[in-house]
Design goal:
By secondary structure, the chain is α+β, with helices and mostly antiparallel strands. It has a five-stranded mixed beta sheet with strand order 1-2-5-3-4, covered by helices on one side. α3 links the parallel β3 and β4. α2 packs parallel to α3. The chain binds zinc ion.
Length: 169
């Protein structure tokens, strides 16, 4: 498991920035869900295990709501204000529901065109920050690798796989 003594937890400055930005606006809907998890079934430690991903939920729980879209737009807006060093190609997992992709039949965890997103503001923000892929319901997943020289890991291959301990809450 990740040892903070010899491993930079890349999620922490991002979480801090989101929390501080929300605090300034007295916005209280965001729930910081899981971020560091164990290795996957094959023993690989990437993504959540490596401290490079965050899952965010909404206090009202459902991502079907317009409030969930508004929360995600707000969070991505916060991310555009990050210092440049953190703003390398970020990956966003958004659900196949509500005002995100709607209930489309798309393959999860594979990067897709932002044109598949229903909301224009959201499309613009993702285009500015990185790439998007369909993910499990009721959360926003953010992945990043700002320590790497070239963080652009967008491919049409699987961009992300949830670990086995994932819970959809
Ligand atoms: Zn996740």
């Amino acid at each position: 498991m990740l040892n903070p003594n010899n491993h930079i937890i890349q999620a922490l400055p991002i979480i801090h920035h989101i929390a501080e930005s929300a605090k300034k606006e007295d916005y209280k809907e965001i729930i910081i869900g899981s971020f560091i998890r164990g290795a996957d079934k094959k023993g690989a430690c990437t993504g959540h295990c490596a401290g490079r991903c965050i899952d965010l939920n909404i206090s009202s729980r459902s991502f079907e709501s317009v409030a969930a879209l508004q929360m995600v737009v707000r969070i991505l807006g916060y991310l555009t204000n990050l210092p440049d060093k953190y703003k390398k190609s970020m990956g966003f997992g958004m659900p196949l529901q509500g005002q995100f992709f709607g209930h489309q039949n798309l393959t999860k965890y594979k990067g897709v065109s932002t044109t598949l997103l229903k909301n224009e503001e959201l499309r613009k923000l993702v285009n500015q920050l990185g790439y998007v892929f369909p993910d499990n319901d009721n959360h926003l997943h953010i992945q990043f690798n700002w320590l790497s020289k070239s963080a652009s890991n967008y491919e049409t291959e699987v961009v992300y796989e949830e670990g086995e301990s994932y819970e959809n809450s």
